[in-house]
Design a protein that fits this description.
Layout lengths: L2 H16 L1 H13 L4 H14 L3 H16 L2 H4 L6 H10 L4 H57 L7 H37 L3 H6 L5 H21 L4 H8 L5 H14 L18 H10 L5 H65 L1
Length: 361
């Protein structure tokens, strides 16, 4: 394989990853019509070649060869997440009908998960935009507006609000690199802590914003992943053990705690095991209720899919709170800057008028 083909296949893999919900649904429909996977994959490869899409043609050929050598799950390795490979691997042990059901379930799951991912991304965009905007405005005031006023009027004659603005501007001009660098390091540290930091203190912080946003999102994804594997016939304990292969350190800490709780005397109903702080209070209660149902597995799978929509709404509500707080903080900061600037310009105008009146006399 030459470098150009490698690049084309990488692009095709990325495109298939984004559109995998439709891909799963299409494969499920062909299996329902008793069309062998070999025939479907070969048709996809031929169609891509006829359209001149070399990347997709090579990728589908690669998937076709690998699926014939091993399985559909193995052929999609490196294209779809590991959790979805586990579902496919479990589903394909019971024939084409089981594979079709697994593919349909994955298609629905992926579609809903992508919607939740979009909500999460949109929730973070607005606060980041406000931070960048306020930083730009503050930098502009510090380097361009305030120095002009300093040249016209001595700072000791400025009003209190103007002196406060000058102090901030002076700090930014002298130590701006360190201030913004420190803020950037804090942001990086916070983002790094989300998937890596675990323990009792982190569990307490997960109850409050902004950590609760990550907890709700990641906890819902875990439940969806477990529900997907249980739908394919994998036991809860086995699904949790398999999830340890691809989870973050934060989630691994919770999963190990859940496995330990499942081994305790209180594990007759698995709802107790999930009360580690990994789930939102609402989802934790629903899991506890599912463990008391006549068929806990069916209830768990149902809650797994339903949790995406509910958690999506919860994330949107939490994001609105963050956005409101950010908007208030930025509004107060901008109002303070404008108050200091306007008060100083008014004082400057008054000083100019007094000077003109004294000259006229």
């Amino acid at each position: 394989m030459n470098i150009w083909h490698y690049v084309l296949i990488r692009q095709a893999k990325s495109a298939l990853h984004k559109d995998r919900a439709a891909y799963y649904a299409d494969l499920a429909m062909t299996l329902d019509d008793r069309v062998p996977l070999y025939s479907t994959l070969k048709k996809y490869a031929n169609r891509a070649r006829q359209k001149g899409d070399t990347g997709k043609a090579l990728l589908y050929k690669q998937i076709l060869v690998n699926s014939m050598r091993g399985s559909l799950a193995n052929s999609l390795r490196g294209i779809v997440p590991a959790s979805e490979l586990m579902v496919l691997n479990a589903a394909q042990t019971n024939g084409d009908e089981s594979i079709a059901n697994g593919l349909r379930f994955l298609s629905e799951t992926v579609s809903k998960t992508e919607k939740m991912n979009d909500i999460m991304r949109k929730s973070l965009n607005y606060p980041v935009f406000l931070l960048i905007l306020m930083s730009a405005i503050l930098t502009g005031f510090s380097f361009y507006a305030v120095p002009v006023l300093e040249q016209i009027m001595p700072v000791n004659e400025w009003p209190p609000s103007g002196k406060a603005l000058n102090a901030v501007a002076t700090a930014i001009r002298g130590y701006g690199v360190f201030i913004f660098g420190g803020m950037a390091l804090m942001l990086v540290g916070f983002l790094y802590s989300l998937p890596h930091w675990s323990g009792s203190l982190r569990t307490r912080l997960d109850r409050h914003l902004p950590y609760s946003l990550y907890r709700d999102y990641s906890g819902a994804l875990l439940i969806v992943s477990l529900a997907s594997m249980m739908q394919a016939g994998v036991s809860l304990r086995s699904a949790l053990q398999q999830s340890l292969r691809y989870t973050s350190p934060w989630m691994a800490w919770h999963v190990k705690a859940i496995l330990q709780r499942l081994s305790s005397r209180d594990a007759a109903k698995f709802g107790y095991a999930f009360a580690t702080g990994i789930l939102s209070p609402d989802l934790e209660e629903r899991i506890a209720d599912a463990s008391e149902r006549r068929d806990p597995v069916v209830a768990f799978v149902s809650i797994g899919l339903g949790s995406i929509d509910r958690v999506g709404k919860s994330i949107s509500q939490s994001a609105e709170k963050i956005n409101t707080i950010m908007l208030l903080v930025c509004g107060i900061a901008l109002g303070s800057m404008m108050t200091g600037f306007m008060a100083t310009t008014q004082e400057l105008n008054s000083a100019v008028k007094r000077q003109m009146q004294s000259v006229n006399r």
